[in-house]
Amino acid sequence: MDVDITARSRDRERLWEAVQGGNLGLFEWRPSRTVFFSPEFKAQLGYQDHELSDALEAWLSRIHHEEQGAAESLFQACTEQPHGRARAEVRARHRDGSWRWILYQATAVYGAHGRLEKILGSSLDITERKRAEERNEWLAYAVEQSPGLVVISDTEGVIDYVNQTFCDVTGFSRDEIVGQATGFLSHEQEAFQKHGEIWQAIRTTGIWEGELTNRKRSGGSYLERARIAPVRDASGEITHYIKLAEDITDKRALMERLEYLAFHDPLTGLPNRNLLLDRISQAVAQSQREQGVLAVVFIDLDDFKVVNDSLGHTLGDELLVEISRRVRGILRAQDTIARFGGDEFVLLLPRLDHEESVIAVIERIQAAIGEPVWLDGKEVRVTVSMGIAMSPEDSDAAEELVRHADTAMYRAKAEGRRCYQFYTPEMDAALQERMELDQAMRVALDEGQFHVIYQPRVNLSTGAVLSLEALVRWQHPIRGQLAPDRFIPRAEETGFILSLGPEILRQTCIQIRTWKDQGVPTVPVAVNLSACELRDPAVISRIRTVLHETGVDAGDLELEITESAAMHHVAETAHKLSELSELGLLIAIDDFGTAYSSLNYLKRLPVHAIKIDRSFIAEMEANPAHHPEDAAIIRAIIAMGENLDKQVIAEGIENRVQRDFLVDNGCLEGQGYFFSPPLLPQDVAPLLTGISKLNK
Asked: Is the bond preceding 484 in cis, omega lying within 30 degrees of 0?
């Protein structure tokens, strides 16, 4: 029989052309284990037809070890499922050493008697598709794990996708949000209206960037910075919109807090220096336009350090907050109170009718601050010193007005505190002098310009030297020797005394040690302890350290504190003095009679002596009968000393009349120029040997 095979040949030719054009490989396997690999099959692995044998093992050896099982099961699947198609995606080693992803598919062919005749299959290099899938998976993972919020919606604004960060921030699950319109997230009506404006802008310009306030599942809100852009397909058509956003709620709150702190005091909430100077500048400009008057008032709490040291910084802060509250309650809406730091406040009082208007405000402030403040159950009373500078009279520059007010405040403190002073140009000269003095004192301490001289204290009847008082002097390289009243008050005011006092104590102890080493018999030496030093928490340990380092016995020292210092916070003072007394130190009250003292408190203090202030004795220079009040006070102090078993010491004795009056009334110890001026250490030694007595 004749068969026309022309059409069949033509179909087979077309099939091979399709196979070659599609880079499709073919293979055939027969039960006899003969294998055929098409040239295209081999080319997918980089081999020409003759370079790779038609052996199943040659192919399997090039399959990645992790996928060899899948390759072998391809044939097993064909035998076990004769009517199905088996497939496997495996990595095969290319001739160049790289791995290629190949898709193998196979189908079993059975004969008329149901026996397996062969397995036919194809291979296709799918490496690029696999890489694209991996990229897509990586991108999907990156989007899902992104720290930013990702929202994808369709062209109608319906949400198709949100990432996990979005769910974490908002509290919504994907099921709750997917399918909702993007406007569903708007927090308020205003935000909802903005939502419409955003979409209008996107449709017009293509991209929108800005900030949005959206809502959380809990009902709260969060602030986000967002960028919304279109997603286009290969033809350029917009298929979706993607929003990339960052939750900036905490960042914005931090920025606002930092901005607030840049211009406000964190403790009181008042404007700080920066904000006040800006407001002063604006007020000055307005005052110049209106030809008006304004005042800048510098306020400083008197002895605030005492409150901090005695009650602690926490209660000190509470006091500052209360003071600021009281002052704010007095000021007008256009006025400003600012905290400059520590216990310093500055007021801006603009648009005053005249300069005298500020006085009424200041007096109300003094009255309000003067009312008692209760801190942790303790009643505290404070006073303030205030300085005032006026514009335009004193200056029209903000910083200069504050500086002038500060200068005037220092003058108010010098006048006795709890008062106020208006600035005058003469104050600048005084301020300059104080600043120069402050600097000079520090230089003097570094260069050893301070030294100690000693004034004998004697038995008023016999003239025998009983003790010495250490007195500081300043040997200035230009001004010569300066007396204590030239620098001690300023040292106490600035706190420099905390450096100078220990130095005087150290020099005194070294001198006592020197006398002892020279075999000179010694007597107790009195050293002044200022109120500032007495309040210092480290005073006891510092004195103990000096005694230890110099090898001086505590009994060789006597500490003198003023009556006013002793009576301030008596309970705390008594505790410290008791500790000092337990060390073996002698304690004396200096300047007695110049301050109010409670005898009930005085008897509790561990003091061995009280010193009559020289002001009472000085008045009796010629005849005590002419000054009955001073004489009565002296007699009372002597009698009180006897009753309290305290030694009474008189100072400032300049003549015999004074000495005789004191002796006649029972005072047995004193000092003054009548007996001896203060002496250099080398001039004291002969007195201590007992060769002579200071008796006149």
From this structure: no
CA-CA-CA-CA torsion for 260, 265, 269, 272, nearest 10 degrees?
-80
Which residues 6+ apart lie within 8 Å of 646 measured at CB? Answer: 607, 608, 609, 610, 640
Rounded to whole angstroms, how far apart are CA atoms 465 and 559?
Answer: 18
In contact, 675 and 694? CB cutoff 8 Å: yes
CB atoms under 10 Å from CB of 122, counted, come to 19
What pLDDT was estimated at residue 12?
A: 47
Contact 240, 300 (CB under 8 A): no
pLDDT band (50, 70, 90) for residue 189: low
**Phi, psi (deg, nearest 5) at residue 96:** -80, 5
How many other C-beta atoms lie within 10 A of the C-beta of residue 315? 17
State the pairing for strand pair 586-592/525-528. unpaired
Convert the pLDDT of each residue in 105-159 to its tens digit. Answer: 988 888 877 788 888 899 999 888 888 777 767 776 667 777 788 888 888 889 8
Q: Would the pLDDT of 598 be above 90?
A: no
What is the rounded distance in angstroms from the CA atom of residue 140 to the CA atom of residue 81?
37
**What confidence tier does 54 reach under pLDDT thresholds 50, 70, 90?**
confident
Q: What is the 3-state secondary structure (H, E, C) of 337-390?
A: EEEEECCEEEEEEEEECCCCHHHHHHHHHHHHHHCCEEECCEEECCCEEEEEEE
Interatomic CA distance for residues 242 and 236, integer angstroms: 16
pTM strictly above 0.90: no
More confident residue, 532 or 23: 532
Return d(Cα 492, Cα 391) in angstroms, integer: 33
CA 534/CA 379 separation, integer angstroms: 22
Among 11-15, 33-37, 559-563, 625-629, where is mean pLDDT lowest?
A: 11-15
Q: How many CA atoms lie within 13 A of 333 on its CB side?
A: 0
**pLDDT score at 11:** 46
Our CA angle for 371, 376, 380, nearest 5°, is: 30
Q: What three-state secondary structure class fits 500?
A: helix
